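Consortium newsletter contribution from the modelling node. Members have asked for a concrete example of what our holo predictions look like. Here is one, prepared for the 6-O-phosphono-beta-D-glucopyranose complex that several groups have been discussing at recent meetings.
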Amino acid sequence: MNKGFPKGFLWGGALAAHQCEGAYNEDGKGLCTADTLICGNVMERLFNISTDIKDGIYYPSHEAIDFYHRYKEDVKLFAEMGFKTLRTSIAWSRIFPNGDDETPNEKGLQFYDDLFDELLKYDIKPVITLSHYELPLGLLNKYGAWSNREAIKFFETYAKTVFERYKDKVKHWLTFNEINVVKMMPYLGGGMLLSHTDPEFLQKAYQAAHHQFVASSLAVKACHEIIPDAKIGMMMAGMLSYPKTCNPNDVWKNVEMERNSLFFSDVMMRGYYPSHINRYFEENNISIEIENGDLELIKTYTTDFLAFSYYMSSVTSADPEDNKMTGNFAMGISNPYLETSEWGWQIDPTGLRIYLNQLYDRYQKPLFIVENGLGAVDTVNEDGTIEDDYRIDYLKQHVLAMKEAIKDGVELLGYTPWGCIDLVSCSTGEMKKRYGFIYVDKDNEGNGTLKRSKKKSFYWYKDVIESNGEKL
Ligand code: BG6
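And here is the predicted structure:
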């Protein structure tokens, strides 16, 4: 039996370009879909989108936490915590400002060279997401984003460009962030202005997903050819759900709920569309256009590992009256056995152990937790300290659950808690929803000095890493 975290376990933290970098129009960067999102509640921010940038409106990604100019200071703090890895994304529109440009933007490429050099200076391995909810806006305006098959070739060019450029620096890659979200949040996941009331909603969402599957396989192919010693994974939003009762109708509903999400990992990890999707497609009038060679590509170039985010679990009921929205992406009803975060996310460390086991049983390939954490309001004491014991408690319980899963036999590559330095919330655009070990002085309206300070959890996590998960 494995006793605990293996040697070489990748402890670190996770970020995404549009939520931390800022410098949204500097050094040749083009606009991306995330640059059009305002601060507000989920409905205002993610379902009432205008892609015109208007004067007088505050767009959180435009400055974010100014990581673009301050990354050296931040990386030094990550190194002080002992990070072995940092997961972040490349902003596609820094490299190809319009998405379909003939040549890449050298200044954008140089920025990531500098960032990766800075990380490697401290022995921090970059884990890089190619596309984290930040599609070049030009690809939406001109082509309709992922609804159009053309997006595949632009993505392939972009992926090959960054593989070539960073082949000596980056050995862990992820294709699309939370690929299973395209169906729930089409603007985030697919860069598409697609309303849930569109009669062809499902058709368009699954077609976009198919394009992303093909694009992902082409990226896997290119990655292995260009960087033979690299590993490339898929990334999905972890959506563990429980049936409300042992009533077989609830249990079946839950099977459907799980399949809905695991469909994406089934395709990318196993290399084929699972048979159950045929009935779903037929009953929902979905007919995917699949070109010759697509299925072979998907079959041949599956991803090497499965990365996922895990924040909470949900509950499924067969009774439609029961259903309401909880969390940001998960549909479900409340679980009387769990506590919730200030944003209503149901905290479930044991669920992480269950989920890790389910995924490993299903795919028998390494797993990587690339997001986890507690979004909470932090208070800065008069003496400048921040006592975020609630965050320490959340993370501790999840690390313990991971440890149990490793003892259960799960192969886990690493753990990168989300927003290791406070950053812009994806679902609301807020700054006050903080995840970090490092506090950033900035509020929801964009005011603040951007000064960085260490929270109590900073010292706690340093000990966790130093003891390889033994000192919690
Ligand atoms: C994940 C996303 O869904 O959740 C991140 O990949 C996001 O981009 C994270 O920030 C936490 O969500 P939120 O809405 O609290 O920022």
